[in-house]
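Service request form, structural biology core

Requester: graduate student, group of Dr. S.
Request type: structure prediction, single chain
Budget code: on file
Notes: please return the result as structure tokens.

Sequence provided:
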Amino acid sequence: MRVIEVSSKELYTNVLSRNIQELVIDADSMVLGRLASIVAKLALMNIKIHVVNVEKAVLTGDKNRVIEGYKLLFNVKTHKNPYRHAIHRPRNPVTLFKKTVKNMLPKHNWRGVEALKNIKAYIDIPSSFQEKDVVKIVDISIYNREAEKYITLAELAKALGWHQKV
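Core staff response, request fulfilled:
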């Protein structure tokens, strides 16, 4: 596995100039929202994207505040019958990431549906991607920011009730 470090602008120009159809992105220590917006933009260009190490993506902010913000969504009930049950909310890192990307895609358009089909997210690095080049986007890394408070997606998922199967 070879890691290629690029900025987001270099990534867009390389994808367009080299006519790349498939891309493997490493989410380790990347800010979730910035990574999701780049992935959504690339998916709208009809590129198949595989995001590995998605559980190591980070959310900036105080740990307790981020967790409580996500837990507030569990108390929201349906309009149809609010006494019956709540809306299903994602708890594992892959579905949390895909839900974040889905909210950045066109909702009432076939382009958004097709773009979401082009995105795959994985916990750790699968063995099928060991021989492929992995892209690491440098300018959205947590190390480039002065954020002292952050939480990984795995920590958030565990706080929401996710149990990792080994």
